[in-house]
Design a protein that fits this description.
ADP-ribosylation fold; three-stranded antiparallel β-sheet; 9 strands; globular
Length: 181
């Protein structure tokens, strides 16, 4: 049987329930056929505003790109999580989602749980093993728009979808103040 992987900041889940996706405007569970991509979603604090996750056609390893100074530490340090192994038959790819992801619209029971007790250490170990590529903040513009156009557009879309999301506004105001003026 084929499997996919789901990274979560919540350990000991018996069933994974679909959550509302602002971008898809529906309840889904995200997963990846790639264990290392799923690892990057063990904690989603700050999302793309702290670290962007990209795939490069010339590389088999995902890129974790800091979008603010110390973005990796802010996102992952002193946090626990789990990677859940799930049956691939419950998931499907779609053209309107990122190529590294698959989705399910119904609850899924994990086949196995891989517990990670220190996500930051795990992420840096994956980098040392060349399973992921970490791009520090100072080198980010080799991989993303110099003017952060992509983040600005993401912020615009997210505010349009949830205009009263005060947590998002506070996060962006603190770490990307130029976006909110």
């Amino acid at each position: 049987m084929d499997y996919v992987f789901h990274g979560s900041g919540v350990q000991h889940l018996q069933t994974i329930e679909p959550q509302y996706s602002l971008l898809l405007k529906e309840h889904v569970i995200y997963a990846s056929a790639d264990l290392y991509i799923a690892s990057l979603f063990l904690d989603k604090t700050g999302g793309d505003y702290f670290c962007s996750i990209l795939m490069d056609a010339g590389s088999r390893s995902p890129y974790l790109i800091e979008r603010i100074e110390n973005g990796i530490q802010l996102r992952y340090q002193k946090k626990k999580g789990s990677i859940y192994v799930l049956n691939k038959q419950d998931f499907k790819s779609r053209e309107d989602i990122w190529k590294g992801e698959m989705i399910s619209d119904h609850p899924v029971v994990p086949v196995k749980e891989i517990m990670i007790d220190d996500i930051a250490t795990y992420i840096f170990t994956l980098s040392e093993l060349k399973k992921i590529n970490i791009i520090p903040f100072s080198e980010r513009h080799k991989y993303v728009h110099e003017d952060d156009t992509d983040l600005r557009e993401l912020f615009r879309q997210e505010m349009k979808a949830a205009p009263t999301d005060h947590r998002l506004m506070q996060l962006v105001s603190k770490y990307h103040p130029g976006f909110t003026t």
